[in-house]
Structures are given as C-alpha cells and as structure tokens.
Amino acid sequence: MITVVGTGVSAAPADVLAGAGLVVGGRRHLDAVAVPASAERVVLGPLAPALDVVERHLDKGSRVVVLASGDPGFFGIVRVLAERFGAAALDVRPGVSSVAAAFARVGVPWDDAVVVSAHGRDLRTAVNVCRARPKVAVLTGPGAGPAELGAALASGGAERGSRAGAAASGLVAQFPAPLQRVLLVASALGTRDERVERVTPAEAAARDWGTAVSVVLCLDEGRVVGTARTVAGPSPAPSQWALEEGEFAHRDSMITKFEVRALALARLGPRLGDLVWDVGSGSGSVAVECARLGAAVVAVEKAADGVEHIRANADAHGVDVQVVHGSAPDALAGLADPDAVFVGGGGRELPGIVAACARRARRSAVVAMAALDRVPAVRAALTDAGFGCEGVLLQSSRLAPLPGDVTRLAATNPVFLLWGVRNPAYREGVAQ
After folding, report:
1. What pLDDT does 132 receive?
2. How far is Cα 12 from Cα 68, in angstroms, rounded to an integer?
3. What 8-state DSSP symbol labels residue 243?
4. In this structure, what is the dihedral angle of CA atoms 316, 319, 320, 324, given to the nearest 10 degrees?
5. Is the pLDDT score of 157 beyond 80?
C-alpha cells in the first residue's frame, strides 16, 4: 500500500511512518517529521524518477509513505499515484486543504467559490475566471503567483507591456477599468509563519512573494457572502439564453435580435476561463449573455450612450463586463487576446475591424452584418486570418397579433452571420 498523508495543520503521525521503507515528500514536509533511519528518503522534484522509486519499493513489498500538503486528493498527488498504481493501492489520509484553510482564516463561506489551479498551467485561465466570478481561489506556482495574477488584473485585461505603448499613442483612456477585486494572499498555512495579507492587485504586482504562498483568494468584497447554495462550485449555467430584446436597455432597436444572438452564442462557445470580445457592442446584449455563460468579457463601443447601456445591462443581469469606450481597431491595441470575438455593426471599416479581431482570436470569430456588400470582404478577412469560414442569412418571422384575435407573421430584418473557427496550423505558423 501507499499511504498518502496530507499535512499542513499537523505533521504526519508517528504510527504512519513506523515501518515505512520509503518516505517521499517535499523537503519541508520531510524536515517536519521523524523519518525512520531504515527508510529511504526521496525529496520530490520531477515526478517521474520519484514514481519509479515508489514502484521499486512496491515490487519488493515495502511500505511507502507520501507526504503532501493539505488534501492530496484536491489538485494534488493522488491523481498521479492513482493513474500509475491504481486507486486500490492508496490509503489516503487528507488534511485540511489550503483553500478551505484560507477561507476559514478570513471567515468567508466557500461553497460557491471557484477553484482554479495556475500551478504548471497557463495563468490566463485563472485571470479570466477571476475577472468573471466574484469569489475565486487560485492555486499558484512558479511564474504564476500573486505578483503575476495581480499585474494581469490591475491592467484591466491589457497584455503585459502594452499599456506603456498605448499611453504613448494616446489610447490609455480606452482601456477597460480594472474590476473591483481584492487579493487575499495566504502564505505558510498551518505553520508558525502563517499569514494572510489583503492587497489590491496593483499592490500584489509590486511585491516579491517568495515561495511560501499557499493560495490566493480573489474576491469582490461586496459579494463574498452570497446566498445559500444547493450545488457547490460556480453558479449553474443560466436556464435561458438568447434573451428577448426587452431584457436589455437599448436605443432605437439597436440590438442584436435574439434569433441572431442564439446562433452567435452557439458559434462563440463562451465558457468559464474564456475571454470574449464584443466589438461594436451597442447595447451589450452579446457581451452580457457571454458573461452569463461564464466567460470574462470586454465590450468595445464608441458611442457614449451605448457605453452606459452596456454598464446598465451588465448590472441588471448581475455580471461583470469590462467596457472600452473607443473605436476599433485602435481600441483593441492593448487588450489581451480573446478566445472568441463577436463583431457587430457595419460601415466601411467593418472588414478592417474583422481582420484586426481575427488575427487576435485564439479559437473563433463571429460577425453579424446587414449589408450584403460587406460579406465578401468580411469572409476574406476571416479566411486570410486562418479561419475556416461558414455563414448563413438569417430571416425570421415572429408571431404578431392582429385585430379580431388572429395572428400574422411579422418579418424581422435579414442578417448575415459569418463565423470562423481557427485552423491550428495557422496559429502555429504565426508562432514560428
């Protein structure tokens, strides 16, 4: 058997270590316990060599003890051990996870928190989750700690280094304002050096946090308590999408109709961890719906009344949407690359805007337009950027009442919807 012991609040008990032929763990875990003199001791670094040593001891019938932090079944080593040796070979004795301990230290319930790991992973997913949800725990790692997370959040979604360049070109006013978030950095949990520090993202970015960070809580302090939950984790997906136009404040019917929005959402595929741009956002109906489905969203709109409508609609639907007041493509210069982008509106600039968006989109792009004349150029912009392009003309007629308790069909304006999905080979070629 492999006994996997979660430490942190207390050290591994002596009876677990007694008779062990091999004890594996991080250096601080090993230094905190009395490893039997007869046991081989392996300091965890690269996993593969350590697992080979574990297998050798199992083959000769030796007991193995693995020391880990907190709950080793929660983003921990249990997954790797179960994959290699089978779940039946494991005797797991969990401690309190760093996430549970951190929330306990600050007196905040966490059944509605989202937990995301940035340890050995791309930080952008954690950043997007923090921007989309009010209560997030981030498991950190080298190069993805409080400083890097804080820098990304403080920039309002701008790529690192781009804000200075934008300042030189006069674009700073167009950057989205950072969301109201606070970071609680929990370090050395369960030890005498334990501390939890409350900082702004900008303050976190300016610090060297060392190697003792256990977890970072990213909170919207106005929404930390929340309501009682039945299902733990992130909020469930909305029961409806492609909402009626009446669900949004808008000007003179300047809003993406729900039939168009339904197909656009299907092709965008917004989800938790994604970043979506809504360019030429108008009322922000697409932006709000993407945020309701879990994505972090930046809405770009040049009209001042449109900006106010976007903010009002985001507030009305209880979601976070960051707004850029400016004209594309210039207003896009400093934003982080989106996973998906929706482009609405029209005008002669549309093909150029689509080209600028498509070059940046990681996965998909969707364009809605009323003018037939724009279709060939927009299609070319998508294909030139490495997308396979498809499209439809959407023509719908809605039931409408007539006098005498009868019904007619009322036609909506036809809309062309083009979409593209990234060809992976194109992006690899750009990277090279």
Report:
1. 95
2. 10
3. -
4. -50
5. no
In whole angstroms, give the CA distance from residue 227 to residue 243: 24
Strands (E), 82-203: 90-93, 114-117, 135-139, 182-187, 195-199
> Would you say 321 and 287 are in contact if contact means Cβ atoms under 8 Å apart?
yes
Number of residues that this document lists for the chain = 432
Instruction: Give tens-digit pLDDT for 360-378.
Output: 999 999 999 999 999 999 9
Radius of gyration of the chain (CA): 26
pLDDT at position 215 over 90: yes
> How far, in whole angstroms, is CA 306 from its chain's centroid?
26
Quote the CA–CA distance of 231 and 234 in Å, as a whole number: 9
Nearest to 126 by CA among 113, 135, 138, 142: 138
Phi, psi of 204 (to 5 degrees): -65, -40
Non-local CB neighbours of 371 within 8 Å, separated by 6+ positions = 346, 416
Its pTM stands at: 0.87
Q: With contact defined as beta carbons under 8 Å apart, do 306 and 287 qualify?
A: no
H/E stretch holding 393 reads: strand 387-394
The neighbour count for residue 91, using CB atoms within 10 Å, is 12
Token pair belonging to 95: 């401690």
Whether omega before 329 lies within 30 degrees of 0, making that bond cis, reads: yes
The mean of the pLDDT values for the chain is: 88
User: How many Cβ atoms from other residues are within 10 Å of residue 24's Cβ?
Assistant: 27
- Interatomic CA distance for residues 326 and 320, integer angstroms: 19
Look at residue 297 and give its three-state secondary structure.
Answer: strand
pLDDT one-digit tens code per residue, 308-317? 999 999 999 9
Instruction: Report which of residues 178 and 237 the model is more confident about.
Output: 237
- Token pair 């000007």 is found at 251
Residue 73: how many CB atoms within 10 A of its CB?
A: 18
Place of tokens 């167009």: 174
Residue 42 gets which letter from DSSP? E
